[in-house]
Write a structure and sequence with these properties.
The complex is a heterodimer of chains A (260) and B (244).
Chain A (H helix, E strand, L loop, with lengths): L2 E12 L6 E12 L3 E5 L6 H9 L6 E6 L4 H6 L3 E4 L11 H12 L7 H9 L15 H13 L5 E5 L7 H17 L3 E6 L2 H7 L2 E6 L4 E7 L14 H19 L5
Parallel strand pairs in A: 3-7, 3-8, 5-6, 6-7
Antiparallel strand pairs in A: 1-2, 1-4, 8-9
Helix pairs in contact in A: 3-4, 3-5, 7-8
Chain B lengths: L1 H20 L10 H10 L1 H35 L1 H16 L3 H11 L3 H25 L3 H9 L4 H39 L4 H10 L3 H32 L4
Helix pairs in contact in B: 2-10, 3-4, 3-6, 3-8, 4-6, 5-6, 6-8, 8-9, 8-10, 9-10
The chains are: A alpha/beta (260), B mainly alpha (244).
């Protein structure tokens, strides 16, 4: 299968001199086209920094980042990246529909046909909330609008930075299942940053465990579970076994496996 | 808000009538009927001079807005210019403009430009400071989203920065519009040639308190009316964005 993302010895240092911080050290990774890869690890392990480097929002100090053989900036220029952050990037003076249309206004300003935005929101179950403003939407609905805004221009690479981090447990569960369903219908290469091992296993083909100080890849676990994956899968033995693997790796990262 | 304003207007009329009941001398508080008859009998003068005041004031206000918004945009994109120019802006707009007013007349040899300068000096700082702050208040997550989508500077300005600055811009209008009216009245009072400020001056010189009160009613009526209209619009805007 074609490689979508190549990271070669990516290093990021913030600041200069003795007070500088090495946030990422020698990240080398390949992500295949259509693969869903999650990054999990304790706070400060550089997950978000790595995602921002891939998005072209932060420049790496050294190393190479190639997305389908091109730099992140080139992909930005081609409007071929989609990003959704933990805090929904919704313009408060726009309705849900107008906000999704904002992406199309920027990526394809000459095309007056913005029906894709409406279709996507309707497919996301937001047909009744098209004309609602940000404050009128629940957290889950805001996140669906946020993800719709990141997907509507059909980017090759979707970057999701803890999109469900601020949601309650039940909504989070439902959203993870919903996202899995969406990506099953329209497959995408996805990088997903999360703090939830269950969420990572439910959605991913591969889970990358990152370790802090400086951030580096500690381990990676392949998730060999059939799709579609629903909440019911969470009680299955193979799912629990994979989550256990991820959690054990995380414990190793945090305190060498010993409980305090 | 409407009830509070109605209560205020009611109380003012009540106090005015009370002054009549308490037989306060009419050269201090002229009775309402006298002021109303002055307003009616001299309506042509008031309309003519009022329009003069408002038209020049609005022109100055428009210039202040154009200048203020332009400066705010320059400040936003070039922090070095903001750092250099801010002290000058604070200094120039904080000097009592009466100090300059006579110099302006000598330099410009007319009354229009000095009045415009005074209006701009009084109002521009609020606009610059507020709009700069408003532009800076744009949500960084939205700016990141725009950057990833490779939005142009113009697109980012129109679609993210300017909408973010709107509540601040509206708030600046509330403050600076009232400032504009006061600046115009004081400038006309100073230069003593035309406008409502000139009518105030003449009324004072002639001990015509009825005319002073008539001008005060017109000026405060216009100011408060526009303030209420702007406030209503601003409240609508902010409510829509859930900022209040």
């Amino acid at each position: 299968m074609k490689t979508a993302l190549t990271l070669r010895d990516v290093t990021k240092r913030f600041g200069n001199g003795p007070s500088s911080t090495l946030a990422l050290d020698g990240i080398t990774l390949d992500v295949l086209k259509g693969e869903f890869v999650s990054f999990i690890g304790p706070s400060g392990c550089g997950k978000t920094t790595l995602l921002r480097i891939v998005a072209g929002l932060v420049e790496q100090t050294s190393g190479e980042v190639m997305i389908f053989g091109e730099s992140p900036h080139r992909l930005q220029q081609r409007h071929d990246l989609g990003v959704a952050f933990q805090r929904p990037a919704i313009e408060p003076s726009r309705t849900a529909l107008q906000d999704v249309e904002l992406t199309l206004e920027v990526t394809d300003p000459r095309n007056r046909d913005r029906s894709k935005a409406r279709e996507l929101l309707e497919a996301f179950g937001l047909g009744d909330a098209l004309h609602k403003y940000r404050h009128e939407l629940s957290g889950g609905m805001q996140q669906r609008v946020n993800i719709a805004s990141a997907l509507v221009h059909d980017p090759s690479l979707l970057l999701l930075d803890e999109p469900f981090g601020a949601l309650d447990l039940i909504t989070r569960d439902m959203m993870a299942e919903w996202l899995g369903g969406v990506l099953l219908k329209t497959p995408k290469t996805v990088l997903f940053v999360t703090h939830s091992d269950e969420e990572a296993v439910l959605l991913s083909d591969r889970v990358i465990i990152m370790s802090p100080c400086p951030g580096h890849v500690y381990d990676e676990i392949c998730v060999d579970l059939e799709r579609p994956r629903t909440r019911r899968l969470k009680t299955s033995e193979c799912f629990l076994q994979t989550v256990k693997q991820v959690r054990e790796a995380l414990y190793d990262v945090v305190n060498g496996g010993d409980m305090p | 808000m409407k009830r509070a304003y109605l209560a205020m207007f009611g109380s003012l009329i009540g106090l005015w009538l009370l002054a009549g009941v308490l037989k306060v001398q009419s050269f201090l508080v002229p009775p309402p009927n006298l002021v109303l008859s002055v307003l009616w009998n001299e309506r042509d003068i008031f309309v003519q001079q009022g329009l003069n005041t408002i038209s020049i004031g609005l022109l100055g206000y428009l210039i202040a807005n154009l200048l203020g918004v332009t400066m705010a945009i320059i400040f936003y994109y070039t922090p070095a210019i903001e750092a250099f120019a801010s002290p000058w802006l604070v200094f120039l707009t904080r000097i009592p403009f009466i100090v300059f007013s006579s110099i302006f007349v000598v330099v410009f040899r007319n009354m229009l430009v000095p009045k415009l300068i005074i209006v701009v000096l009084v109002t521009v700082f609020t606009i610059v400071a507020n709009v700069t702050e408003g532009l800076k208040s744009a949500d960084p997550v939205l700016l990141d989203r725009m950057k990833v989508l490779h939005a142009s500077r113009w697109q980012i300005f129109c679609k993210i920065l300017w909408p973010a600055a709107q509540p601040y811009f509206q708030a600046a209008q509330l403050i600076s519009f009232t400032g504009m009216v006061i600046a115009m009245i004081v400038a006309e009072y100073q230069y003593g040639s035309e406008g409502l400020g000139f009518l105030l001056l003449r009324g004072q010189q002639q001990y015509r308190m009825d005319r002073l009160y008539a001008v005060a009613i017109i000026v405060s009526g216009v100011s408060v009316g526009i303030y209420i209209a702007l406030k209503a619009y601003q409240t609508h805007l902010l409510k829509k964005r859930r900022l209040i």
